[in-house]
């Protein structure tokens, strides 16, 4: 059986973890949720650092925990990257990497050269951790984790200690891992921008439970979740850069069902990108509107509708071909426009973030 099956129940005074998850064997799964919802605890259960009685954990067919079986942490082929890189201060970067390699008991999946190259740390090998920036330390920590030939990589808010500029510098390295390695990653975060950029699958957690688990695009477009995502409610779509209008520094990206003009991010024509469209940036009109500053106007069909977090607001799912979009409107305008499932409309998109 492929994939990750994880079932844990833990009762602590004031907190209960109760999850039963089926996660994909490939790509990045984001564990997303507010502080204290149990993301780290779930990761620790997976790592075997926390023992949930009667828990079950199976990774691509291998049982790490069952009623009868418990694999101790040091026998689990996993890499664990924490918020702050825990490198050995007395060793150089190379010494730290070699330490990772010593633990290997099986055929190595990632070579030293490959790990150094993927994380861009060749120029740091002779340095000691104290002489590295926070982002560089994290890159070394990830390279070290990769060198243990993990079958699963656990990352607990690896960017939390970095400022925005460092975080943006760091993201491409995580994206490269994603593109070039076949090791599933479980990635804890409460930052929606990290989810939008890195995740393929998302588990939304609340008070010790997984309230949703599914592919990113589909799950973010669910109407019962945006209420919890608040201002960040919106969709992420896979797209391709199709053309460029150099005079205006704009690029046209196509996605399943349509295309949009966005600020040119410098990506090559044909490059795969993601676009993120927040529900608050989408408005609806019954006719194609002209004489507006909004550049992106697409025809769509109204899908489901739901109440939002405030009684004045509603959420509407729109379908542009097979791609979903969410719009946050006042309930009054939804009624005045006579919106109902199946109705054809025009959507105006005020802002699109191009990711990657
Ligand atoms: N060893 C423990 N014993 C009892 N309660 C604990 C223990 N470890 C954590 N908790 C509690 O379990 C809950 C979940 O904590 P956890 O660290 O998993 O949350 P989190 O979602 O990772 O939060 P954050 O985003 O702030 O890191 C919290 O209420 C925490 O206080």
Oligomer: single chain
- Number of DSSP helices? 9
Strand content: 35-45%
Q: Shape, please?
A: globular
**CATH superfamily caption of the largest domain:** P-loop containing nucleotide triphosphate hydrolases
Number of domains: 2
The whole-number mean of residue pLDDT values reads 90
Ligand roster? adenosine-5'-triphosphate
- The end-to-end span amounts to 33 Å
Kindly name the structural category.
alpha+beta
Largest sheet: number of strands, sense, barrel closure: 6 strands, mixed
- The total strand number stands at 20
Low-confidence segments: none
Radius of gyration: 22 Å
Q: What name does CATH use for the topology of the largest domain?
A: Rossmann fold
The sequence of SSEs as H and E is EEEHEEEHHHEHEHEEHHEEEEEEEEHEE
Named CATH architecture of the largest domain: 3-Layer(aba) Sandwich
Structure overview:
This protein is of the alpha+beta class and 356 residues long. It folds into two domains: 4-225, P-loop containing nucleotide triphosphate hydrolases (Rossmann fold, 3-Layer(aba) Sandwich), CATH 3.40.50.300; 233-354, Beta Barrel (OB fold (Dihydrolipoamide Acetyltransferase, E2P)). Helix content is 22%, strand content 37%. The protein is built from nine helices and 20 strands. A six-stranded mixed sheet has the order 6-7-8-3-9-10, sandwiched between helices. Strands 13-12-11-14-20 form a five-stranded antiparallel sheet. α2 (93-102) runs parallel beside α4 and α3 packs antiparallel against α4. The longest helix has 17 residues, at 164-180. The mean pLDDT is 90. Adenosine-5'-triphosphate is lined by residues 12, 15, 33, 35-41, 190. GO terms for molecular function: ABC-type transporter activity; ATP binding; ATP hydrolysis activity; molybdate ion transmembrane transporter activity. Residues 1-232 form the ABC transporter domain. Keywords: ATP-binding, Cell inner membrane, Cell membrane, Membrane, Molybdenum, Nucleotide-binding, Translocase, Transport. It holds the Pfam family ABC_tran.
């Amino acid at each position: 059986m492929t994939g990750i099956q994880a079932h844990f129940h833990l009762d602590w005074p004031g907190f209960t973890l109760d999850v039963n998850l089926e996660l994909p064997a490939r790509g990045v799964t984001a564990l997303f949720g507010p502080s204290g919802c149990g993301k780290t605890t779930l990761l620790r259960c997976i790592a075997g650092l926390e023992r949930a009685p009667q828990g079950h954990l199976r990774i691509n067919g291998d049982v790490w925990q069952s009623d009868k079986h418990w694999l101790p942490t040091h026998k689990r082929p996993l890499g664990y990257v924490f918020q702050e890189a825990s490198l050995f201060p007395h060793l150089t970067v190379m010494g730290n990497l070699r330490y990772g390699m010593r633990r290997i008991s099986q055929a190595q999946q990632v070579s030293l050269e490959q790990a150094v190259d993927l994380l861009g740390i060749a120029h740091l090998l002779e340095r000691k951790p104290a002489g590295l920036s926070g982002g560089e330390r994290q890159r070394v920590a990830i390279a070290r984790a990769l060198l243990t030939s993990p079958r699963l990589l656990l990352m607990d808010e690896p960017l939390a200690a970095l400022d925005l500029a460092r975080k943006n510098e760091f993201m491409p390295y995580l994206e490269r891992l994603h593109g070039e390695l076949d090791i599933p990653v479980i990635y804890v975060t409460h930052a929606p921008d990290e989810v939008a950029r890195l995740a393929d699958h998302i588990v939304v957690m609340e008070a010790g439970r997984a309230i949703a688990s599914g592919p990113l695009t589909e799950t973010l477009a669910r109407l019962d979740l945006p209420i919890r995502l608040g201002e960040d409610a919106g969709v992420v779509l896979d797209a391709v850069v199709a053309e460029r209008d150099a005079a205006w520094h704009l690029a046209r990206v196509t996605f399943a069902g349509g295309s949009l003009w966005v600020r040119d991010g410098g990506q090559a024509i044909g490059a795969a990108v993601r676009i993120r469209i927040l529900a608050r940036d989408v408005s609806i009109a019954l006719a194609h509107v002209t004489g507006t500053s909004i550049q992106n106007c697409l025809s769509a069909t109204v899908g489901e509708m739901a109440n939002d977090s405030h009684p004045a607001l509603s959420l509407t799912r729109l379908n542009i071909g097979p791609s979903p979009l969410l719009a946050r409107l006042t309930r009054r305008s939804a009624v005045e426009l006579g919106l109902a499932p199946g109705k054809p409309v025009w959507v105006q998109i005020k802002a699109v973030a191009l990711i990657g």
